[in-house]
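TL;DR need structure tokens for one chain.
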Amino acid sequence: MSKAFLAATVLCAVSQAAAAADLTALETRWLGAAFPVLHYARSLALPIDIIVQPQARPNDVPMAMGFAGGRCKLVLSLRGNASAEAQLAGVPQAAQGELIEAMAAHELGHCWRYARGAWHALPAGFVEVGEEMALDPAMLAASKAMRETRREEAYADLVALAWTRHSHPREYARVHAWLARLRDDQPVARNGHDTRTWVALAQDGSRFGDAARPFDDALPLWREGLVKDE
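>> reply
TL;DR here they are.
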């Protein structure tokens, strides 16, 4: 039984609305690559629905996680998306599977945090030092929002790398290098997706432990990066 078929089965089981849609070859390939992550999410009974957009909107990323009604929404925006595979540029199709799987694991990290009620919460025992100040309250609020987003993105990046370390150890260096290149392309330092501090900490995959779940393996490096990001 192919991964693509199994992924479509997961899609049917998780989201009846999306299941009614015919999948394109590109959607089938992405879901096939993401299948191990989706299967793992189902084994944990995480509340995930998969949504396949019939038409991507401007600036949509190919795979994203949203939240509504207490559930996680994994959204694929591949149809009509000219930049759908921009993150995979230069990577032969045969070598893209582990990268798409890492993207799915990243989104799983977001869902895990949301489902546990930990969204934007700091780990137990972590105390922030210092205090941001600005004359413009709107600027201060925007800076705080970017910091909270950056921390969540960093945790999700580490979950993706921990997943790769355990699922594809021989591919870890390649996946890490790919993610590092993506994160190096930052229009503004310390924006919501500037996770370079955390990605650098994870260059050596052996720094991840042997926890049963990637969510737990990500925590020590996440805490270390939080201190460096202060």
